[in-house]
Design a protein that fits this description.
Helix content: 25-40%
Strand order of the largest sheet: 1-5-6-11-10-9-7-8
Number of helices: 16
Distance between the termini: 57 Å
Low-confidence stretches: none
Strand content: 15-25%
Bound molecules: histidyl-adenosine monophosphate
Radius of gyration: 28 Å
Mean pLDDT: 95
Length: 425
């Protein structure tokens, strides 16, 4: 056994989600499952760890995630494993491993779960965080881009999250990107002296990642660099135009942001982020884009794909005020009893209610009726069922509506039926 004081502190950047906040998370999850089903996405659950090489190959050596942020460890068999920093690479791995592409031209899957990145923790940025992600694999048409973006806007609408801005860009494909990369690298070599030491390394290994550098003077140099959108080939131009035209048709507002290249190497063509300006420095609620070369890069046949991930912590922080705080509506029944016999009858009624899925509680401490009713109120119960030995003698109970204060006497034989009826109403 280790000596010294037991630790009562969790890991920095890996917060607990406490019971009072969980209601908001449940709502987000329930809305997500419903919406994904409506849009034809099936849930997939992949493990939280994978072979390290999967992420290095897909996200790319030279990216911040791979170089600085992965939780990588050797297991007892000497194999290098990594806690997933994101969900796209594991989904593509599963897509290839289980031949999900043979089931139809477009494989649509979604996932929810924890991701892990060793970033510097700050408001809205964590080391364990959660994502809702979706991937549509198999078709490269602009209609899929529009459908994916529509799905995201439906999610925000259904949760009443307002004030997000959709930023959109196209970063080209295997045809136009190499020429852009070369021009970009040449420009950066010309301004090498102004870049930070990290960017000197980026310039050698993965020049485009200079765009992710947080150092001010590097950002100033990057702001003047050639833009991918200015060098798109005809096919990418056409694709991007059609995506924009479909978004206009669907009345999805967006702003073009030609600096949006995203921090993962697998993207091609359309990239996007939903930004909530009220969140402070960590304002990206969701991000995603096309990755038409990724499946092939991972050993599969040439297969286009597109997807997104929403940061759940940032989504919950964007919910309308009361909900983010997790204030639940009042529900269910508090069984308030006075006297031993009343308690025993109350206990039986409690079982009946819970068995039917009704939220119900009873006092286990033998407190006064007043303090029982006070906790019923505090715990946001909608009704109180009041049972005293006197009432029992008359084979009656009092049902009080804790919201309106109205109360009624109901025969004990009918009390369950009565409660179920008013709870429905
Ligand atoms: P990402 O932009 O790295 O993309 O992450 C997506 C979202 O996850 C971000 O917009 C943010 O809301 C949230 N997020 C990322 N890192 C953190 C963090 N340290 N703390 C809190 N929230 C965070 C991806 O992960 C891609 N796999 C998305 C994708 C799916 N692209 C195609 N398909």
């Amino acid at each position: 056994m280790p000596r010294g004081k037991p630790t009562t502190r969790g890991i920095k950047g890996a917060p607990d989600i406490l019971p009072e906040r969980v209601a908001a998370w449940h709502r987000v999850e329930a809305v997500t499952h419903r919406l994904m089903a409506a849009c034809g996405y099936l849930e997939i659950r992949t493990p939280v760890f994978e072979k390290t090489d999967l992420f290095v190959r897909s996200i790319g050596a030279g990216t911040d995630i791979v170089d600085k942020e992965m939780y990588t460890f050797e297991d007892r068999g000497g194999e290098s494993l990594t806690l997933r920093p994101e969900g796209t690479a594991p989904v593509i791995r599963a897509y290839l491993e289980h031949r999900l592409g043979t089931r139809g031209p477009l494989c649509k899957v979604y996932y929810l779960g924890p991701m892990f990145r060793h970033e510097r923790p700050q408001a809205g940025r964590f080391r364990q965080f959660h994502q809702i992600g979706a991937e549509a694999i198999g078709l490269g048409t602009p209609a899929v881009d529009a459908e994916v973006l529509a799905l995201l806007t439906h999610l925000f609408e259904a949760l009443d999250v307002r004030g997000l801005t959709l930023e959109l860009n196209s970063i080209g494909d295997a045809v136009c990107r190499p020429a852009f990369r070369e021009r970009f690298a040449a420009y950066m070599r010309g301004r090498r002296a102004e870049l930070c030491p990290d960017c000197h390394v980026r310039l050698e290994r993965n020049p485009l990642r200079i765009l992710d550098c947080k150092v001010e003077r590097c950002q100033a140099v990057a702001a003047e660099a050639p833009k991918p959108s200015a060098m798109l080939c005809a096919a990418c131009e056409e694709h991007f135009r059609e995506v924009q035209s479909l978004l206009a048709l669907l009345k999805i507002d967006f702003t073009l942001n030609d600096r949006l290249v995203r921090g993962l190497d697998y993207y091609t063509r359309t990239t996007f982020e939903f930004v909530n300006p009220t969140l402070g420095a960590q304002d990206a609620v969701a991000g995603g884009g096309r990755y038409d070369g990724l499946v092939e890069e991972m050993g599969g046949p040439p297969t286009p794909g597109i997807g997104f991930a929403v940061g759940m912590e940032r989504l919950v922080a964007s919910l309308p005020k009361g909900e983010a705080a997790g204030v639940p509506a009042s529900t269910g029944v508090f069984v308030a009893t006075l006297g031993t016999e009343a308690f025993r009858s109350g206990l039986l009624l409690l079982q009946d209610l819970r068995r039917r899925g009704v939220r119900a509680a009873i006092d286990l401490e033998g407190r006064s009726l007043k303090s029982q009713l006070r906790s019923a109120d505090r715990e946001r119960f909608r009704f109180a069922l009041i049972l005293g030995d006197e009432e029992l003698k008359a084979r009656e109970a009092v049902v009080r509506d804790l919201k309106t204060g109205e109360q009624a006497k109901v025969p004990i034989s009918r009390v369950l039926e009565h409660l179920l009826a008013i709870l429905e109403g």
